[in-house]
Write a structure and sequence with these properties.
It is a single chain. The protein is α+β, with helices and mostly antiparallel strands. The protein is built from 12 helices and 19 strands. It has a 7-stranded antiparallel sheet, with helices on both faces. α4 runs antiparallel to α6 and α6 packs antiparallel against α7. The longest helix has 25 residues. It is elongated and about 110 Å long. 38% of the residues are buried.
Amino acid sequence: MTDRTNATYSNSESFALLAPSVRAAVVLAAACAAAIFACLFASSSPAYASVEDDDIIMGQTVEARGVSAKYCPDISSECAIVVGDDGTVYYERNADQQHQIASITKIMTAIVALENADLNTEVTVSKASATVGESSANLKEGDTMDLRTALMCLLIPSGNDAGIAIAETVGTIMDPSASDPQAVFVSAMNAKAEELGCTNTHFTNPHGLDADKWGSDMHSSARDVVTMARYAMSYDTFAEIVQMGDTTVTVTDKDNKTRDNWLDATDDLLEEYEGMRGVKTGSSVLADFCFSGCVTRGDETFYTVVLGNATSDERFGDTITLMDWAFDSTVHTDFINSDFVISEEDPRPYVADVTLLDWPNRTVKATVDDEGEVFDLFLPEGDIEQVVSYVRIMGDVEKGDIVGRLEFHRNGQTLKVVQLIAAEDVAAPTFTESQYNNFDRFRRMMEGAETPAPSACYNKAIPA
């Protein structure tokens, strides 16, 4: 008989000792657990952030531009775009790909409302509004409020209830005889999208729900979203609301009693990211997590859109990455940036030492005829190449003589050319000095020392 107190088995041996029915149950349970784990992992695992060769920077792909990955945003969004306040497109990834945008739809809802009704217009909450479900502003059937308050309920907590209430109210104003004022309003949303040049956008409701009874061919694109966002932010009311954060509004119920409604902002970056001004979040099973943002620092404003992120944290993280990239990629710099000056009495930049061929070990200090100006350098457009050339100098040198030049090139284009000029007088050697120089030159050659003294440039690479 085997002494079971001392017997040991491998995992396979232990499994073999089980009864056949038990083994079958174990196999089935393991298979089910593996399937469940795989589904959970697939649905919750975020995409890996990356720099793609076909990401586009200033109109050229990363691959075509040959730009280093260190100059490119590393994100996991399926679609994304970065646009300046003037409309300059700095970065894009699948920017024209059609994609569900969920509650980002409410940007257009706000635009149409602002353009077709006064802010004092009374908005009434119908049963359809109050029972739409999903994200809400806790509005009840029979509640009334002015349009400004309704827009706050729409944009701050992303209230679907407010979306229908606004569409029904403003749709009625647009066509008092309409049997379906919400349809009138949605038609106006599509007309406005077309007017703005949003060629990849189609709306079917005013709130962005896209599943179950709201399932439809509703879509937009990163480029169209940023177009809508920039346009919406031109309205002071919209811009003020989307950067409010958590707040309370007062509504009047069906019994004519006032009630305070707490609005919990969906934009996590309002208090976490410097200069953040909104604009709108979105999320659904089909859209995943999306965000359209606007940031202003000083006189610079950038808009970003990210679509198709796996998690809410990921969409905000990618937004931060894009915003950081936009602000950090533009540096203010000078063409002429030497750390040295000619002297205390002469504060001009000391840019170079230029070889004097008549002397074995002397150079002439050089500055520039144009100290240049501060300019904005967008790093991903490519490095700036600095090319310096020197004049072969023999004889006397007088202050102000041209002794060389600096050229600055990028992507095959010359950005700037400045002349190097002598910052001091240097007389040619006398006959006696020439004789001594010849001896000194010979001595240096025998010792392996460099002669004549080499030229040197102290202007730093750009960016420094």
